[in-house]
Design brief:
This protein folds into two domains: 60 residues, no CATH class; 90 residues, no CATH class. By secondary structure, the chain is of the alpha+beta class. A four-stranded antiparallel beta sheet has the order 1-2-3-4. It is 53% helix and 10% strand. The longest helix has 30 residues. The protein is built from ten helices and four strands. A hairpin with a 2-residue loop joins strand 3 and strand 4. It is elongated and about 55 Å long.
Amino acid sequence: MKLIVPNQMNEIRLADYQRFVRLEGDDEFLSRKALEIFCGLSMDVILQMKSSSLNKVNDVLMKSFAERPPLKQRFFIDKQEFGFIPSLEEITVGELNDVDTYISDWSKMHNAMAVLYRPITAKFGNRYDIEKYEGSDKYADKMKGISLDIAIGAMLFFWTLGNDLSQATLKSLEKEEGMNLAPLRSFLKNGGGYQYTTNSQEATHSSLKK
């Protein structure tokens, strides 16, 4: 039997990963469900596989989850091109509130992507305009079909942006108020963000879910 195993995030659909992170169980259960969801195998077939084969496949999947993809500014859904919000300085209160609400919840990640990415309406060289925001529901279902690297890249972008802002704010407070905030700055630098690991499926599943 030939088995196609995703070995990069861009080969995994956001909707499939959303199904996976909802699961609760031990390593063995999650390993089987990973093959069912990401490789399209039935549970009957999985139960007949050798344990060593199952472990090899899961090792490949875990390596794909360990990627730290960059922000992807443009992509196509069918023949329609979507673009990331061109200028975060011009983000509206409604957009910011919605993305802040959705991006921390994997079950609503497609809604977060529908806030951050919308159809491109005009291009000017490397610059572009996107459609006016009318709520995340308009394109949320379409976003379920995007690849996981797009969602993770957007999440890491916002974490990096937020961490940089936190560091800058602390430095400003130290300078203006004479406060010693070095311990807190160190915590933000070393303790924040999304921690990826390939030690075990449970660790990867847990960290990405958080």
